[in-house]
């Protein structure tokens, strides 16, 4: 948050150096003997995943329950707070009451809101939004929450501006109000919901009125001394952008954006940060300007000395597009940070961003369960019987016909989010209504679940649909245990030779059909040499660090070179010749 390298300075002091002699590693021109000055506000906001567990209390107290955190930077509390809310929960647009179709549960009664305010859980910030939206005063909310009134008054201001926005249309809103809303942390999507128009319309409107973000440095000095750092953030509370370190010497290098993993959560943790760091190190080694975008303070990828330029910013369509245009970047890598950046491939491409690696259209063909299942049928790759269904009754009919258990698979999800094996009509109905909210607008793919089958995982790198390197691992547990909870063995020890041959053939067929260039992962079922595909992810998976370290080949380095068109020399891997076994537990 301060940019002051505490651990670095502490290590120097421990070795006997004196504080006035230690260089400030951010500015490189001043010493470390000073108190950091801040001309910005930082909000650290927790990420919870309590909805992954049944019958678990989400109440907040002295025992820690968060699984990760985000760090948002702005020129005022309101701006930083709204950024942080969006960062912690992708799909939430900011500080406002959740809607019926939101991923956050809706408070249905006044009593439910008051109960949440008095006894906080992971939904408290949304209860505060509901309270101010219904007209509660700062004093009445303070009586229930005991939160300092200064913070409450700033949150109330956000709600007042949001209410004001609802009075206008895109043609009637004033430039001053539009600029004020951006300065208070409102996203284009948030404003579009109030003005009842498309997000792209709001972007076009503010650009036409000259309302654009500026880039500011985190230099530990609050601009008291001249300094140029590569540690940056964006804000609407400024009149001009700061220059930054390496700007002159790297201006002729191709600029490549790398989107990080965001907040740690169940299913997305340090594995994806390892992938991002390996990617930016490879880019710098081959002469690219590596521009890192991430907002997780716990990661190595957000160390400013790992990349050419670090943006501590949201990984959203709006903000990535802002950074891409400001930096005049030549391409963007979305496939090393997990599902959050991968979901942006199609919208970013539609906005003119060059997505490096597999084309966004083919990413969509893999992520959309219906499209992918149709592809498998067409190319002759076996899969459990499936159907795309839009109502609970149709889902019940399908499950009764193929027989329970069945697997429910929504599209564009990570770590089995909203994916579940169901064993009865009641189980199915409860899950579809509560977790998936199945409807004609949000259909799900349901497939027959094969009991007693072994699950196999393939991690690979391809170039133009041709596989360069691969690893085949097997799960100790039978299929049904999520890969993040399963024990993996590499090289596989208990697979038939014919099973391995079929797995390789299927992997080649899928890579060729999707014209994959970069990393990908395939999950399969095998029972009596009958191999079926569960899903494919055209991005790095959480097992890429494991297979890279086990086989002593950096799969992400190889994938990065493929994606930027650099020379690639695939490492020769013979899984039969590996004389040791790696276990991921």
In short:
This protein has 20 helices and 18 strands.
Beta-strand percentage range: 15-25%
Shape: globular
What's the pLDDT, averaged over the residues? 90
Low-confidence stretches: none
- Specify the number of helices: 20
How many strands in all? 18
- Helical content band: 25-40%
Biggest sheet record:
6 strands, mixed
**How far apart are the first and last residues' alpha carbons, in Å?**
34 Å
- The largest beta-sheet arranges its strands as 3-4-7-6-5-8
The class by helix and strand makeup works out as alpha+beta
Q: What does the radius of gyration come to?
A: 25 Å
What is the topological layout?
Layout: H1 6-14, E1 41-47, E2 68-74, H2 77-88, H3 110-118, H4 124-133, H5 138-145, H6 149-165, H7 175-183, H8 188-195, H9 199-208, E3 214-217, E4 231-235, E5 255-259, H10 270-285, E6 289-294, E7 309-312, H11 317-326, E8 331-333, H12 339-342, H13 345-350, H14 360-367, H15 369-379, E9 386-389, H16 392-402, E10 406-409, E11 420-422, H17 425-436, E12 444-448, E13 454-463, E14 466-478, E15 488-490, H18 497-513, E16 518-527, E17 530-537, H19 544-551, H20 555-563, E18 582-584
Parallel strand pairs: 4-7, 5-6, 5-8, 6-7
Antiparallel strand pairs: 1-2, 3-4, 9-12, 10-11, 10-12, 13-14, 13-16, 14-15, 15-18, 16-17
Comma- or semicolon-separated keywords:
585 residues; alpha+beta; 6-stranded mixed β-sheet; 6-stranded antiparallel β-sheet; 20 helices; 35% helix
Can you give a write-up of this model?
The structure is a single chain. The chain has 585 residues and is of the alpha+beta class. It is built from 20 helices and 18 strands. The chain has helices at residues 6-14, 77-88, 110-118, 124-133, 138-145, 149-165, 175-183, 188-195, 199-208, 270-285, 317-326, 339-342, 345-350, 360-367, 369-379, 392-402, 425-436, 497-513, 544-551, 555-563, and strands spanning 41-47, 68-74, 214-217, 231-235, 255-259, 289-294, 309-312, 331-333, 386-389, 406-409, 420-422, 444-448, 454-463, 466-478, 488-490, 518-527, 530-537, 582-584. The strands form 4 sheets. The protein has a 6-stranded mixed beta sheet, with helices on both faces. Strands 17-16-13-14-15-18 form a 6-stranded antiparallel beta sheet, sandwiched between helices. A 4-stranded antiparallel beta sheet has the order 9-12-10-11, with helices on both faces. A hairpin with a 2-residue loop joins β16 (518-527) and β17 (530-537). α10 (270-285) packs across α20 (555-563) and α16 crosses α17. The model has no long low-confidence stretch (mean pLDDT 90).
